[in-house]
Structures are given as structure tokens and as C-alpha cells.
Amino acid sequence: MKKKELMNHMKTSLLAGLAIFFLSCQNSNSEVKENTVAEKVELGNNTKAENGPNHTPWDELLKKHVDASGMVDYEGFVKDKAKLEAYLKTLSSKKPDKSWSREEQLAYWINAYNAFTVKLIVDNYPTKSIKDLGPALKIPLVSDVWHYKFFQIEGEDFNLDEIEHGILRKDFDEPRIHFAVNCASISCPPLLNEAFVPSKLESQLNSQAEAFINGGTRNKISKNSVQLSSIFSWFKGDFTDNGTLIDFLNKYSKVKIDQNAKISYLDYDWNLNKQ
User: Fold this and answer.
1) Best CA proximity match to 121, nearest among 156, 166, 71, 162
2) How far apart (Å, rounded) are the C-alpha atoms in residues 57 and 15?
3) Does residue 104 contact residue 96 with C-beta atoms inside 8 Å?
4) N or C: fewer beta carbons within 10 Å in the chain?
5) Of 115-129, 141-155, 217-231, where does mean pLDDT reach its minimum?
6) Rounded Cα gap, residues 252 and 182, in angstroms
7) Is the pLDDT score of 84 beyond 80?
8) What CA–CA distance (Å, rounded) separates 115 from 62?
């Protein structure tokens, strides 16, 4: 009897051990699957913020039709007009509110400015310059292309000037937006060939500032002399809130500029930034 009882006890222990082993394996596999799914969701949503639209369609269009130097294949955008308009429809359905983070709001408005600018060119392509578009009677700072209300957001008529000056400059105190919004012209800061997204907005703005200032064509930098884009003249106050213009440039310039360096400004080329 003792031998039989011992055998039964061993069988019971073995079965219990196997049960624990299989349960452990199942839990481990479940955790791996959950982690894998979570990773895929995180990677797949890198252009979708917690609030706001999914910027993936705009990201795909930019990667397809804008090269590394920021030059644009507008003929390609014309062919993909339906996809561009679908993205703009999403943007137009809801504008940012106070529940959105600062990064979400900035990414929305920068992408909106750039995407609606491309739409304006696409609707009037071919054209030599964005300045040729807009109302028939053009009065600078009153009825030029930037004051032309050619799109709506939440049913409200909008123009590009309202986004740049009435929202981005007015509400965010962020001088780097000048290197992010693109006016479809040669002298404008290059159009980034990816969408601005909240998760990496800071690095994107820094990269745009560095690329614009150090590019060698839109700004010409040396230790004792700088020939700058007219953007630094038009919006000088945006760059000098916390120091001199030279102080701002030295944050991003590869060449250390002397505080007494001679400053001049380059003519602005308004020709279309087409490939």
C-alpha cells in the first residue's frame, strides 16, 4: 500500500508541475503578444496625436512629392489631388481647442498652412509665383494672396495670413515657426518632406532652423558678416525677445558669429519652389 500511495503522490505532483508550467508559458506568450501589439500601435500612430487629425496622409504626400532640399513636384500633387483634398477635409472638420496640447496645436496649424498653400498652387497650376494668385485686385497687406479667403475650417472662412499672424505668431511665441511654414517660393524656408507631429515637434523645429540658417543660399553666414533672409528683417521682433538677432542665430549657426558682425539682407525670390 505504501508503494502504491507513493506512486500516486508522484503522479499528482508531476501533473501539478506540468499544469503550472503550461500556465506560465501561456501568460508569457500573452504578455509578448500584448507588448508586440502595443509596439505596433505606437509605431503605427506616430503621425496621430491624442487630439487632432491623423497627419499620415499628408506625411505620405510630402515624402512622395517633396525632395530632401524642399523642392516640390507640383505635377505629382495634381495627380494626388483627391488624397490632398481628403486630408484637408479632415483638417477642416475640427480646429484645435484648449484641450489640445501646445505641440498638438502647433503641428495642426503648421500642417494646415503648408497643406492649404500646396492646394492653392495645385488649383492654379501651372503658375510662376504664388504672388500671381489670389484676388484679381491685389492691394499689399489688404487683398493679396495671403488675405485671400479660399478655404474653411469648421465652416469659418480662413486665409493664410490668419493662420500665420493671427494664430501662430500671436498665440505661441515660437520664432521657429518661420522656418516651418512654407510660402511656395524659392527663398522661403524649405518645405519639410514629412508632416509635423506633436511627438517630435521640438526636434523638427530645431532641424528646420538649422537647415535654413546654415543652408548657404537663403542665408550666408561668416564670423564678421551675415547676409540674411528678409524673414529676419520682416519679423525681427520675433527673434529678439530674449537677446539680439546675432544671439538667436548663434543658437543654430555652425559658424560662431561675432556680436559686431555686419548685417545685411538678401533679396527675396518669389519664384515657385517647383522641382
Assistant:
1) 71
2) 55
3) yes
4) N
5) 141-155
6) 19
7) yes
8) 10
Centroid of chain to Cα 89: 18
Are 197 and 55 within 8 A, CB to CB?
Answer: yes
Whether the predicted pLDDT of 16 surpasses 70: no
With 0.85 as the threshold, say if the pTM is over it.
no
Q: How far is CA 262 from CA 59, 187, 236, 258, in A?
A: 40, 21, 16, 9
DSSP conformation class of 18: H
Half-sphere exposure of residue 254: CA atoms within 13 angstroms, side-chain side? 10
pLDDT at 61 exceeding the cut of 90? yes
Structural contact between residues 263 and 245, judged by C-beta atoms closer than 8 angstroms = yes
The model's pLDDT over 147-188, given as tens digits with 9 standing for 90+, comes to: 999 999 999 999 999 999 999 999 999 999 999 999 999 999
Q: Residue 143: exposed, middle, or buried by beta-carbon count in 10 A (0-12, 13-18, 19+)?
A: middle
The CA-based dihedral angle spanning residues 263, 268, 273, 275, taken in that order and rounded to the nearest 10 degrees: -70
Q: How many DSSP H helices and E strands does the chain contain?
A: 11, 5
| Cα-Cα end-to-end distance for the chain | 93
CA–CA separation, 186 and 76 (whole Å): 18
Query: What confidence tier does 49 reach under pLDDT thresholds 50, 70, 90?
Result: low
Q: Which residues contact 238 (CB under 8 A, 6 or more apart)?
A: 169, 175, 178
